[in-house]
Amino acid sequence: MMNRRQFFSTAAGAAALVRLPDAFAAAKYDLIVKGGRVIDPSRKLDAIRDVAIADGRIAAVAANIRADAAETIDAGGKLVVPGLIDIHTHAARVKGGPELCLADGVTGWIDAGSQGADRIGETIAIAKSAPQQGRVLINIGRAGILPEGDTMDLSHADVAAAREAIGRNRDMIAGVKARLSRDVAGANDFEVLKRAQEAASAYKLPVMIHMGQTVSPLPKLIALLKPGDVVTHMFAPPPNSIIDDSGHILPEVMAARRRGVWFDLGNGRAGHLRWDIADSVLKAGFLPDTFSTDWTPEGRAAGVIDFENVMSKFLMLGMSLDQVIACATSTASRTFPVFRDRGTLKVGAPADVAVLELREGTFEFVDNFENKRTGRQRLFPSATVLAGKRVATRA
Ligand SMILES: [Zn+2]
């Protein structure tokens, strides 16, 4: 009796290879996510499919994969999408933050300016020990987020200190954050943004601005943005919204998008999102590129709750399911290089997968001004796979 290897080494064995029964020929997968509605905007796919995973990567996406697997997730009746990417969080502000985000299906995040040069090491330590991909933006205000305003004292916007910190942490600092609202930067907003660009340009990094309620007019600030920069809090109400009183997107905002500036939601809790502004902006056809939660532990309890809740607000506002998923996956993956191979379920990609439940019912959503609206659909996290392994989902 020949063993398997000897059999295949013979001519007869090679010939027989094509006729081997399924069970013998089948590849063995580590995990199969079975029978879900796979929505992968990166490939314009929306169909019932199985997703097979081996060695931490997507191995196959097909109908009725019949091979055996060590573990199976039954995704019948659910959505199967790439792992969610949240490009504006404060996950690295608190120990355990990344784990809480992961429990909501977030397999990649950016901490957007929780710390500046003085204490950037604290956020970097949390990012490095996070289970999923996490990077930080360094606040141009060297003391980070301050209750009295990060750069109200202009000396806090210290280019040399920021550059030095980036130089020491090239692998973990993905960009520079400039928070520009009146209560954060006062009349310094334009100078603060100029300094943020100076710090970033030395390393060819993007700048993310926190817009809305600024002293300077938005067109003056937006003129300083280069391709790849990010505008967060895009639905902020006046003064200095992206839209004027007659419902037209500012020409400078349109021009910024054309030159490759990203426009991001940044849900947050106060001051950033107002339903009537979102209505007008979407009606003008200016859709967000990315969704982000502006996640904090406090937001987790009210206002934000989870990434799925934030996504669901935009289903309510009339965006399609496909558009909403794209904002949280494929488009988000293009904003920072760390996510370039993510946000997709194509074969060979790292196996980060979010299984979501789209429930029908009556759901109350709140903007940042205590205005409540009722939606008829709400996404919920159901199961999360990170690098091919199932992780616990928020109960
Ligand atoms: Zn923020």
**Structural class, from secondary structure content?**
alpha/beta
| Low-confidence sequence ranges | 1-25
Give the names of the bound compounds: zinc ion
The major beta sheet can be summarized as: 8 strands, mixed
Number of helices: 14
Total DSSP E strands: 15
Order of helices and strands: HHHEEEEEEHEHEHEHHEHEHEHHHHEEE
- Characterize the overall form: globular
Residue share in β-strands: 25-35%
Can you walk through the features of this model?
- This protein is α/β, with parallel strands linked by helices and 395 residues long.
- It is 26% helix and 28% strand.
- Strands 1, 2, 3, 4, 5, 13, 14 and 15 form an 8-stranded mixed sheet that branches. The chain has a 7-stranded parallel sheet with strand order 6-7-8-9-10-11-12.
- A hairpin with a 5-residue loop joins strand 13 (353-366) and strand 14.
- Helix 6 packs parallel to helix 8 and helix 13 (307-316) packs antiparallel against helix 14 (321-328).
- Zinc ion binds at residues 88, 90, 112, 294.
